[in-house]
Specification:
With about 300 residues, the chain is mainly α. Helices cover about 70% and strands about 5% of the residues. The protein is built from seven helices and six strands.
């Protein structure tokens, strides 16, 4: 009889301990919001949880990179819009200078305005973003050009680095996000001569013709500037297209993040309403067990008294 009582007590204590563990687990899940807090909670769920967390981390980095390059592209786009406006102003000044009624003095005055536009364009080629010269290609710690009236195009090229800079989207696809000042303002033929659309060359030819009071030269420079204007707008379009691709890539990365966050929640997070119900039931079971045990002890004491 004593052994049976001892066995019943052991079973009671085991059930009570199990109920308390359920209460502790439920309370932990409710307070943390997580079903899986340690590997022992669900060993099979740990590898996919770690993988999704890694994917989320990579995605957040991609989004950070996209945001940064989006701001850089905005700076480049704004700079090239200013360059387009400067070339348009030069075309207007060329038309004024080509007029047969304009005097040499007038053309000299116009030349001063063109020189100012030349300085503006060189300044645009030196545009920086976060301390980087964004039109200097892979050597972005220094400007690519500076003014130099002794040079054929009125500028001196300081570096000749190409631009290999790309940004990777959430799928691993590389997006080209930069062009060099040479590509934009100083297009060259394979033999090194100025190519059609060379902005620096066209502007300097206008400046030279105005200073020389050369009406025919001004007319030729005006034609070259119009070609340069078309070419420069094509470079501007590159940055507009890059901005569109970055915007689409950001939207895709955000979509992936939403999916990954949902997947992580499914793997790791607790179902709070269900866990709260389990907690309530476990607490009720615990209270019932304690009450039942108390009644049994009271009965045993009564039998001992009667005996």
């Amino acid at each position: 009889m004593v052994l049976n009582i001892h066995g019943a007590t052991q079973a009671y204590l085991a059930n009570l301990d199990r109920t308390q563990q359920q209460i502790n687990q439920a309370q932990s899940e409710v307070s943390s919001g997580y079903r899986v807090q340690t590997p022992s909670d669900d060993p099979a769920a740990v590898p996919p949880i770690l993988q999704v967390q890694a994917d989320l981390g990579n995605n957040r980095q991609v989004q950070s990179n996209l945001s940064s390059v989006s701001n850089e592209l905005g700076t480049a786009d704004s700079a090239l819009q200013s360059a387009v406006q400067a070339v348009a102003s030069a075309i207007t000044l060329a038309a004024q200078g080509a007029n047969s009624t304009v005097t040499a003095s007038d053309r000299a005055n116009i030349a001063q305005q063109v020189a100012g536009l030349q300085q503006t364009l060189v300044g645009i080629s030196q545009t920086t973003f976060n301390g980087r010269y964004i039109f200097s290609g892979d050597q972005d710690t220094s400007p690519a050009y500076q003014l130099d009236s002794t040079q054929p195009d009125g500028v001196k090229q300081l570096i000749t680095a190409s631009s290999t800079r790309t940004i990777v989207d959430a799928t691993g696809t590389a997006i080209s996000v930069a062009r060099t000042a040479q590509q934009i303002f100083d297009a060259k033929n394979p033999d090194g001569t100025d190519a059609s659309g060379n902005v620096f060359g066209a502007l300097n030819s206008l400046l030279t013709a105005l200073n020389n009071n050369d009406q025919n030269g001004i007319t030729q420079a005006s034609s070259a500037l119009k070609t340069a204007d078309t070419y420069l707008n094509q470079q501007l379009a590159f940055y507009g297209e890059a901005q569109d691709r970055i915007s689409a890539a950001s939207d895709l990365a955000q979509k992936f993040q939403t999916q990954q966050t949902s997947e992580l929640s499914t793997l790791r997070d607790a179902d709070i309403p269900a866990v709260a119900l389990q907690l309530s039931q476990a607490q009720l079971d615990q209270q019932a067990s304690l009450s039942a045990e108390a009644n049994i002890e009271q009965s045993k004491n009564l039998f001992s008294y009667l005996g």
